[in-house]
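Ticket #4471: structure export looks truncated?
Reporter: QA, pipeline team
Priority: medium

Steps to reproduce: submit the single chain below to the structure queue and open the exported record.
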Amino acid sequence: MAYRQPVASDFPAPVNISIIPPPPGQSPVNVLLLLHGLGDSSISFTNLAKQLSLPETTSIIIQAPHPLPFDLAGFHWGDDILFDPSQGNMDYDTGFQKSSRMLREDIIEKTLFRKCGYEARNLLFFGYGQGAMAAIAAALGLNIELGGIVSIGGPVPSSHGNSQVAIEKSRTPVIVLGGSSATSITQSALALLKKSFVTVEYIKWPRPGDAMPTNRDEMLPIMKFLARRLRSRVGIPEGSVEVG
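Actual output as written to the record:
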């Protein structure tokens, strides 16, 4: 099946996206949706997408829909802004109904499915922190198998975990990564991920905190996961080494 390369005009306003096409001469078989963290913007993940340069993959970097208040720089994915006085920072988990609806309806269903002809299996999420939580919420709301989710420091939102309605596990595979301490990927968070998704791979970095990968060893599990999940029309080029 032929998939059309998405362009910015395909997406409804006020969605703010940047698009990085596949390497020259390659077809846009897959789409990687990148979601930045709380207080960031799409710029940092645009640079990440260029560095990844994944084969046969269009990267779409989505900026969170809500600006931070009080003239603070950056954007957020939550339905609200709450400050946590015990930690002295903003709460990540403030509901994701609005951003999840935008991702499901405006980005995936109306644009990538209907306009560009993509199948669910060819779409993957790459999210950091609150952006990963928004990706997880959107995937659970779709209730279909996507290509996968890379979650760095992003658990299942509490609004899903607190639901009293029995929900069938999502078949979308997830790789979740976090630090050995000072992490959002606690034992209870990991248990909820495994309750929500059929396949969950957990990588515990030997360092505190859930910051983005800082070296090759931390990035390697992500690249192996993407190598397993990305689809290809041309297969493995002669002379290359398949990861995973």
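Status: closed, not a bug. The export was complete when the record was re-opened. Leaving a note from the reviewer for reference: Residues 236-244 have pLDDT under 50 and may be disordered.
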